[in-house]
Amino acid sequence: MRIAYLSCDFGVPVFGTTGSAVHLRELVRALRGLGQEVRVYSPAADEGGAPNAIDGVQIVSLGGIAHEVAELLKREDTGLPEHLYREWRRLLFAEHAQRELRPLLEAFAPDAIYERYALFSYAGVELAQALGVPLVLEVNAPLAQEAATHRELVLRATAEALEQRILCAASAVVVVSEPLAGHARRLGVAPERIEVLPNGVDPERFHPDVSGEAVRARHGLEGKRVVGFAGSLKPWHDIDTLVAAARLLHERDERVRLLIVGDGPGMAPLRALDAPFLVLTGAVRHEDVAAHYAAMDAIAVTFTGESDYFSPVKLFEAMAMAKPVVAARAGQIAQLVVDGETGLLYEPGDASDLAVKVRDAFAREDGGASLGAAARSYVLDGHTWEHNARRVTEIVASLKGGGV
Question: Span 2-200+384-400: which CATH code?
Fold first, then answer.
């Protein structure tokens, strides 16, 4: 079967290092592994590049008069936040993309369009209707709400109205968590058109036999007790609580180190700390992340607890590594991690509790190996990208047959 994968988010570069970019590539790779022909269409290509890139990617740039209008809007002295320009650019791209993509899609003749939902992006809805094919919409967050809470959103009423319109127009809506399924239902999406499909992992890339020795040597971690974190350092990752917990651990045991892998808004404050227990790698290529996990004795998956809709890729990767995971008791995480069996849960925002749980993992007779083994077994049982690709294939097949 032929699937056109559409991602209209300028913030999700196909070959980037973020979890969203990893999700895109891994699902495409898994679908192709099942024999599906998948082509990817996106306005965003590269933020540093990814050697494990996928082929069959068509970059659709904002061009022509639409690009000129975007540049004019960028220079307008409106007195409004600069973010308004980026919102107008998304709306312009939704129109431009239809003209650019329609002949490409007509030539490809897909059986369905699979779209990663992006704020203000209604191109997929209209393209699916024009081609007479189903639209499977993947929703990873309530984007209007998220943008208004954590970033800037000038055209909020428009964003919210479009979000409802887009989700309700899709043939099927794939969400990554139960709270997101509730969000879709509240917008009016029929429950039978909603599929909950959490994120996944490639267990052949993330496995316990990966060596972390080179990473430990590079960062002077030989003989240390390493608690680690990998992520984009966004506000909801609650790095402050993680650092506070690591400080408590280091005060009791000078061997403790906090290894933070990734980059983002929280990096500058971390660099300013100059803490002796803190090791910062910056962003690393996705194919190098497993070696960094392997260098950790325990892996922290921290969140503020203010939101409950997320399905962190990092959680599945850490569990697949068979490392003891200490995760926030928040949202879907509390459903995926069985406290004391497949990992340990701490109360979000409580540095003392987080430190206690990490200390518990370190102090276990097997160093947390039994927790890690149970976690990997759980992931292998239904949280791989191949599993997700099989379900997406089933959904598309059912839509071709007349319904979900």
Answer: 3.40.50.2000
